[in-house]
Every structure is written in C-alpha cells, then in structure tokens.
Design brief:
Layout: E1 2-8, H1 17-22, E2 29-35, E3 38-44, E4 58-60, E5 63-71, H2 74-80, H3 90-101, E6 111-119, E7 124-129, E8 138-142, E9 145-149, H4 152-158, H5 165-174, E10 187-189, E11 194-199, E12 204-209, H6 213-217, H7 225-245, E13 251-254, H8 259-271, E14 276-281, H9 290-300, E15 303-308, H10 311-323, H11 334-345, E16 350-352, H12 357-361, H13 367-372, H14 380-392, H15 402-414, H16 417-424, H17 443-453, H18 459-469, H19 471-485, E17 490-492, H20 498-503, H21 520-529, H22 532-535, H23 546-553, H24 555-563, H25 574-582, H26 589-610
Helix pairs in contact: 2-3, 7-8, 7-21, 8-9, 8-21, 10-26, 11-19, 14-15, 15-16, 17-18, 18-19, 23-26
C-alpha cells in the first residue's frame, strides 16, 4: 500500500509539501521521476519485497509505473506466464505482465490496486482502478493540464481548487459522493473497474470500463445450498490465506461482533495461530461489540485487544479525523475506525477486515423487502394507499423493531425508484427536503437505477449492484482506506477477492435472503466457525452512539461550527440549521443527530482542509 501522485503538462516542479501530504501513505521511502512533460511521485509503504528492488517509480523498457495496492496472485502469474523478474515485487510482475498481455492482464489480477503506467514511446498514461474500488484514484483536468493522486488532500495542497456546489448539495442529499463526483470542480474520481487513457501531448483523457459486476449478476445459476456453501468456504479461505501469505510483515484482523469479521478472524487464526485481533469498546452497552468479539477471540486464542474509545481524545481529535478524508464525510463510524487502526499500527502493518460481505451476500435489512416484493411494478393504487398509511403512523423509535421494519416497507412501497433507493440507504435528510434552498439534481443516479431496472436483474440484485457501485466505493471503502492509511496501516478485504466477486453475484436470491434472514449463506457457513450467539445477532459494524455524542460529548464543538456556518448555508436554510440546534424535540432523535453530524462534517472539512483555518 502506498501513495501515488502525477502531473501532465505542469510547468513547475512538485513542491516539497507534496511529500508531506502523502507521507502517511508511504513513510518508508519517497521517490519521483520526470521525463518530457510527465512527473510521477511515489510514497512507499513496503510490505512485499522490503528490499530496494521494490522501489518506485519502476521502469521496464519503455514503461514506467507508480503503483498503489497489492496483487495477491502475482507469484502464480509469474509461474503461469514464465516471467523473468529481478525482484519479488508485485509491481515488477505487473510491468512484465503488461508488456506480455497489455490491458488483458487486468482480468488475471486478484488484488486491490490503483496505478499509473507511462508509455514513453507513445507518450500516454494509463490510469487503472481495481474491480471494487479498494484503492482510490482522483484526477484533475483543466484545459490540457492534468494531475492525479491517491488522496484529494494532496491535490488540494498542490492545485488552486474551488468547491463544487452541486456535488456538495448531492453529498447532503444522498449521504456520500458517488460515481465520479468529488467536492472540487475539475476533479473526478476514476470509477471502480475503470481505466483512463491520457494523451500527454494533448492533455485529453478517455475513460473506459474493464469490469462490471452486472455481467456476473446476469448469470445466476441453479445450485444446491451445500455446493454453494462449499464453494464460498473454499474461495474465502483461499482469499484469507493469500492476504496473509503475501506480506513480509505481521498481519492482524479487525474483529467486530458480526459474522463477516468473525469468519475472517476464524479462518485467519487457522492459517496463523495467535494472530492479533482488534475491536472497539464503548461504555454505552447498546453499541459495545466487545463481548461478542471476545467470544471469537477466545475460541481461536487470538492476541486480542479491545480499544476503549476515550471521549476526551475524541474531542481533541475529531476535527483532524474529519479533515483527513479530503472530502465531507458523514459516516460517523469513521471515528472508531480511526482509533482501532491507530491501535493496530502499534503492533503490525497489515490488517484484514470484512468489507464487501454485505453487498455481495445480502447483509442489509433493506434487502429483505427487495427480495420479497417487486416494488418497481407496484400499481399506482398500492403506492397511494401505502403513502396514506405511512403518513398516519408515528416515526419508529427503535430501528431494530418489527414496527420499524413494517414502517420501512410502507415507505419503500410508496416511493419511486430513486426516492426508494435513497430512503432505503443513506438519505439523511429524508422527509426534510424542504431544508434545501432548491431541489438537488440527481438525474445521473436515477439513470443508473433505471439501467439496472432494465438489465433483467431481480429487485434484490438491483439493490445489491447499486450498493456495490455507489455506497461501497463511495463510502465504506473510502472510510477504511483513509482510517488505515492515516496510520500507515494497510487494510485488506478477503471478501473482495476476484473469485468471490465473480461467484457471489451468480448465487440465487434465496441463498442471500431466506424469508426474513439476511446473509443466509454466510450465516450457514458461520455455523462451522463461530459461536451460535454471534450468528443470531443482527448486523453489526463499528457503530457509534451518535445521539449521545451530539447531545453531550461533541455538543459544544458542533454548535460552535454550526452557529455561524461558512458552507452549509449555501445549501441548507439557516433557519433549519438553527432549529436543529435549538429545538431538538422537533425531530426524531437519531435523525437529528445524523443531520447535525453531516453538516458538522461539511463545515470541518471546508475550514480545515479547504481554507486551512
């Protein structure tokens, strides 16, 4: 795992502070390279091949590469294609493989990656991002000048950027920045499973897709549960083993109280007895995962550490944590993710996690109604009736109750495709759209959902694919990448292995949602590895007591930022912000906490990361 940066047609040298802006991603070594009108910079976190043989930028023939990520099957690829390399670095494998296969090599790679490959003869740069979007890559383009980087903050430190008001309004409306959107004008994120070709002579850029999960979701095949269980077990064990084996440094695991990280921990402990595991502990019992995580740690005798979140530290660190994302980021689980990564880095350099399991295997509660009803084809009379009934019912106070489930079902039944998807996912301002000064344009997201609706996929598949293409790369993977790399820690996700990405979408809906049981197949697999008490628990992640924080521990700093907002008032009415702060009884408590935090995160990002106050 590393940090990369590059420019095309830029007249001046890279400033010294560029090294500092990516130092946390690559503290071992920082090197650069310049030829013609191209500049490449690499910050190295050495994990595979710790010798000078793994140095970057790396040149082979007419090609020079800067690479961020890991190719877990690169040793097998060397053998398969009889590659003659001088080092044991996966970067060198990648270079040799490209010379042999060109872009066709991408189909062979099992890993996480974002890289830039310069062809000195053709004067072109190839930018590539992995299937799921594990590794980030942002691109600035204006006139014939381009720059690209692993982090937005590095671009913001180097370039005269201005904020994109439309993108920021979408952030508030949707809950995250999706697709190619970033908070800056002229800066886009290269989408997952895509590559871009840059003509360095003209400064033009063309983007193409090289992998799409939809194609696999369209190939659902009949399969016995026992056979599917065996295949998933085999693929996941292989993925865990590869992600442990392809590191020359110690590997650990993030362990929450859920099935996904529990399975990863169980398998990892079998391959590496005594592996270190880490979890977050809260004083608030409702959110404390430590007792469940301890069940797994005790069963597999891991070297377990519980990271107790200190509210005193949180008050000191919250602004730095938010600003580190380089964009407004409203997912409050970024906070415990930051602290557990910090604790892990004191002991090791590589950490495994359970990211991707929910999107691939049906882990969210919102998938249950999608599996049972085809909301896209509800008659209008049903939608109107559902709307009348929904409006007559009180807002649920317990999100885990049956009443909340029925309430959400009615909400989904009464809405159109776009509104339904937003409501079911991360729509923080749902039912409060009047807070915006003007409607937020979401035609691109609506169009993507319409294309999925016409693709022949089931309602459940449509929602899973939409989540895989939006929330996973736009929110969840961003969170883990920034949280881990802030401490020079590499996060690896076995569920996002090539084999599982190609297998899971082909499994029938009944193996994902069974009656009202989410993640059915993984729960069956968990019976082989995990305590029953953990299997019966609802989905967990690094959840936080956000309402308590907004009302107590973070109340002062949140109010200080929102009393005189510098950015949020461009999109949200001032009187609404004031009402959120001063009239808490006018809103459902959890809803209010999320809206406050989303606005607070935007303000902190703007003042600390953009204006450098």
């Amino acid at each position: 795992m590393c940090g990369i940066f590059g420019t095309v047609n830029w007249p001046h040298d890279s400033p010294a502070y560029l090294r500092g802006s990516l130092l946390h991603r690559g503290p071992n070594e920082q090197r650069d390279w310049r030829q013609d009108n191209v500049y490449l910079f690499h910050a190295r976190l050495a994990i595979q091949d710790l010798s000078p043989g793994g140095r970057q930028p790396m040149t082979y023939g007419i090609y020079t590469i800067i690479f961020n990520g890991e190719i877990y099957n690169h040793k097998q690829l060397r053998q398969r294609y009889n590659l003659s390399c001088q080092s044991s670095s996966d970067t060198e494998t990648l270079l040799h493989l490209f010379v042999l296969l060109g872009l066709k090599m991408l189909d062979q790679l099992d890993g996480m990656f974002a890289f830039a490959l310069y062809d000195t003869k053709a004067q072109t740069i190839l930018l590539v991002r992995d299937r799921a979007g594990k590794k980030p890559l942002y691109v600035y383009q204006h006139n014939n000048q381009l720059a690209f980087s692993s982090e937005l903050n590095a671009l913001a430190a180097y370039l005269p950027l201005s904020v994109d008001d439309q993108a920021l309004a979408r952030y508030l409306r949707v809950g995250f920045l999706y697709g190619q959107q970033t908070p800056y004008c002229n800066v886009m994120e290269l989408p997952a499973g895509h590559y871009a070709e840059i003509d360095c002579r003209t400064g033009t850029l063309a983007i193409s897709s090289w992998w799409d999960i939809t194609a696999f979701a369209q190939q659902v095949r009949p399969i016995l549960e026992t056979e599917a269980l065996e295949q998933v077990d085999t693929c996941l064990r292989k993925a865990v083993n590869q992600r442990i084996d392809s590191s020359d440094l110690e590997v650990g695991v993030f362990l929450s109280g859920g099935i996904d990280s529990g399975l990863i921990t169980a398998m990892a402990a079998q391959f590496k007895p005594g592996i270190r595991s880490f979890t977050v502990s809260f004083a608030n019992g409702e959110y404390d995962e430590a007792p469940l995580a301890r069940l797994v740690a005790d069963r597999y005798q891991t070297k377990h550490k519980e990271v107790r979140l200190s509210f005193e530290r949180l008050q000191d660190d919250i602004e730095r944590i938010i600003a580190g994302y380089g964009e407004p980021f409203m997912d409050s689980s970024a906070i415990p993710s930051y602290y557990v990564a910090q604790a892990a880095r004191k002991h090791l350099t590589v950490i495994l996690n359970g990211d991707g399991a929910d999107e691939l295997f049906g882990g969210y509660r919102r998938y249950v109604p999608a599996a049972r009803f085809d909301f896209n084809n509800f008659p209008s009379v049903v939608q109107r009736s559902a709307d009348v009934l929904y409006r007559s019912l009180p807002y649920p106070t317990n999100k885990k109750s049956r009443y909340n489930f029925a309430y959400r079902m009615l909400d989904m039944a009464r809405k159109s495709g776009l509104e339904r998807y937003l409501s079911a996912t991360t729509d923080v301002f749902e039912n409060y759209t009047e807070a915006f000064y003007q409607p937020v344009p979401l035609a691109d997201l609506a169009g993507a959902l319409d294309r999925l609706r016409m693709s022949g996929l089931s309602s459940l598949q449509q929602m899973q694919v939409a989540d895989f293409q939006t929330i996973l790369p736009g929110n969840l993977l961003v969170k883990m990448d920034i949280a881990t790399m802030a401490h020079s820690l590499e996060g690896r996700s076995p569920f996002l292995a090539k084999d599982l990405l190609e297998l899971a979408p082909t499994l029938p809906d009944s193996l994902k949602i069974h009656s009202t049981t989410t993640k059915y197949l993984l729960r069956q697999l968990a019976k082989k590895y995990l305590p029953q008490k953990l299997i019966d628990q609802p989905k967990r992640g690094f959840e936080v007591p956000l309402k308590q924080w907004m009302d107590k521990q973070l109340k002062t700093v949140v109010c200080d930022y929102l009393a005189e907002p510098q950015l949020a008032q461009r999109y949200i009415r001032r009187e609404f912000i004031s009402k959120l702060i001063n009239q808490p009884d006018k809103f459902p408590a959890e809803k209010r906490a999320k809206m406050l935090y989303s606005l607070f995160a935007m303000e902190v990002w703007y003042r600390k990361a953009v204006r450098n106050d």
